[in-house]
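# step 3/5: fold
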Amino acid sequence: MLVKYKKSCEKIAMGLLGLMPNEQKVKKLQALIRLYEEKPERQLYLWKEEDDYVGLIGVEVEEAYFVIRHIAVNPSHQGEGLGHVMTEQVQQCMQPREMLMTPEAEERMLTAC
């Protein structure tokens, strides 16, 4: 189930963002979380299965489109198609906007989600 990020999930979100190769330093993760908290056009979602958060997707929303900037899935759940499920769920939420993806997020989708 896709759940909008809340401050109470900050450490979970940082842990999931830290799975991305270019986002592993604590200060960078903290700055990234602040960016999602402070900028209304940036939205962060967590994927919850039963009682566990196992995935994350971060988007930047514009008027006609949205860009997937970050996507991560807990290693124990990789290979289950959660990356695709999260993108489909976000795409439904963002309609009628067109979906775009950064090259980094696209590579992550293909290799680790």
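# step 4/5: annotate
The helical segments are 10-17, 26-38, 82-94, 103-112.
# step 5/5: archive (pending)
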